[in-house]
Amino acid sequence: MVDTAAVASADWSEVDDALERTFQFDDFVAALAFVNRVGELAEAENHHPDIAIHYNRVTLRWWTHTAGGITVRDRDLAEKTSGLAA
């Protein structure tokens, strides 16, 4: 069942049945370090976002393909991901 509750963080948007956010960093090295932290979280949770890196910007999309959209798990991981950028 897809959870349609509002996104807990105003920094995330609902785009095409996914939670999406773009993070900006000082440079490519910092962006890549963030992606590696996200990768560790995703592996630990066995739930993986779509990731796009554009030099110092990283766009993440959390969604659950088996549910056809956003679930509570996606919202939880979006919030955890926000903490990794700090």
Structure description:
By secondary structure, this protein is α+β, with helices and mostly antiparallel strands. It has one domain: Transcriptional coactivator/pterin dehydratase (Gyrase A, domain 2). 36% of the residues lie in helices and 24% in strands. It has 2 helices and 4 strands; from the N terminus they run ββαββα. α1 packs antiparallel against α2 (72-84). It is globular and about 35 Å long.
Q: What name goes with the CATH superfamily? A: Transcriptional coactivator/pterin dehydratase
Question: The biggest beta sheet, please?
Answer: 4 strands, antiparallel
| Strand adjacency order, main sheet | 1-2-4-3
What is the mean pLDDT? Answer: 89
- Poorly predicted residue ranges: 1-7
Question: What CATH first level would be assigned?
Answer: Alpha Beta
Element order, helices and strands? Answer: EEHEEH
Q: Which descriptor suits the 3D outline?
A: globular
Strand content: 15-25%
If you compute it from the alpha carbons, what radius of gyration comes out, rounded to the nearest whole angstrom?
12 Å
Describe the oligomeric state of these chains in a short phrase. Answer: single chain
* Integer count of domains: 1
The number of helical runs is: 2
Structural class of the secondary elements? alpha+beta
Helix content: 25-40%
Number of strands: 4
Cα distance, first to last residue?
Answer: 32 Å
CATH architecture designation: 2-Layer Sandwich
Please name the CATH topology.
Answer: Gyrase A, domain 2
Concise structural overview:
Helices cover 36% and strands 24% of the residues. It is built from two helices and four strands; from the N terminus they run ββαββα.
